[in-house]
Write a structure and sequence with these properties.
Strand order of the largest sheet: 1-4-3-2-11-6-7-8-10
Order of helices and strands: EEEEEEHEEEEHE
Distance between the termini: 25 Å
Number of strands: 11
Structural class: mainly beta
């Protein structure tokens, strides 16, 4: 790994200038930047590094947080199971093998979530099937700051 290309977990989130017109409290995810912004409403946002969908697995649009879960269990979606048939049908929450990490916020439509990870080295990359991965300490921080109904905008 080259120094300076991947944020360390301790310095992962930071307050940055942000003026794209999004409502205060909303979440904006820039796939090309591999960053998630929680809009503060004072011309700033909290910026977090994230992993995003692999090429061909990315999506763009508007969703809303429709559920919040601490150490959720995980069942692989059919596409993931097809690509990795050895995966179990269910991985218990809190298991070191559970890819959801410390917390998850599901997005409307039922297909995707913003969640922690058991693979912190994947944060900052194109790694998922469309979910947004965060360092566990960052997903816990975001979890505490957002509510069910928070709008989420995924942009290029």
């Amino acid at each position: 790994m080259l120094a300076g290309l991947v944020a360390t977990p301790v310095a992962a989130r930071e307050v940055v200038p942000f003026a794209d017109g999004a409502m205060p409290g909303s979440v904006v995810i820039s796939v090309s930047q591999r960053r998630l912004y929680l809009v503060n409403g004072d011309g700033t946002a909290i910026r977090y590094p994230v992993a995003v969908g692999k090429p061909g697995k990315q999506w763009f649009g508007t969703k809303a947080i429709d559920g919040k879960y601490v150490q959720p269990a995980w069942s692989p979606p059919s596409e993931v199971k097809r690509d990795n048939p050895r995966l179990p049908n269910l991985i218990a929450g809190g298991s070191p093998h559970n890819p959801m990490g410390a917390a998850a916020m599901t997005l409307s439509g039922g297909e995707y979530a913003i969640h922690g990870t058991n693979r912190p080295s994947s944060v900052g990359t194109w790694a998922s099937y469309g979910c947004i991965r965060m360092y566990n300490q960052d997903v816990v921080d975001l979890y505490d700051r957002v509510s069910v109904g928070t709008p989420v905008y995924v942009t290029r």
